[in-house]
Design brief:
The protein is mostly helical and about 220 residues long. The chain is built from nine helices and two strands. A two-stranded antiparallel sheet has the order 1-2. Helix 1 packs across helix 4 (about 65-85). The N and C termini lie far apart (about 70 Å).
Amino acid sequence: MGADGDAGSGRGRRMPRAVRERQMLDAAVRTFARFGYRAASMDEIAELAGVSKPLVYLYLNSKEDLFTAVIRREARALVDAVRAGTEPGLPPDAQLWAGLRAFFRHTAEHPDGWAVLHRQARTHGEPFAAEVAVMREEIVAFVTALIGAAAREAHDTPDLAAHDVAALAEALVGAAESLAGWANETEDASAKEAAATLMNFAWMGLDRLMRGERWGPGR
């Protein structure tokens, strides 16, 4: 009990279900990233995982369920990486810097997972887009808390309105998502450089905003 084989294919060894399932998900991430959800073949996923197609269906029921499982796993891994990359107790700017570096490092080290989250899942409607939205909301909430803390600590003022903080967090996360895609497709663009670019762009502007300086049209 607790171990599964793939006797029908002649290729499998008996191993724990969790290990076999991870192999299937790893193969699915690569296949979905390369071909997209609709064009991805369950036969190719099974071949890449080294199992039979019936075993893939036995474990994950359907192509839709497999894609959903991939999205959930990759989203959880990204959120966990961002949170693990920060150190509570550091100043807000240091936490944001650490979080951005962790974000770009993870997306660079897992380009197929990021392609599935950022491109594939969002373009195929529900329920896939909703799965990504859950991940994004968690990251936005994390960034919102950091920006709010920065407004309070950097200048000892909580005057930055809550809706301004929320809007800034949404903009920052959106910029990070786009920049990650660019960095993964641009030769010699490192995770550290991507994080520094966004940190300089966002934090310097936020600093001026917290000082009460605002841009307006006609100036």
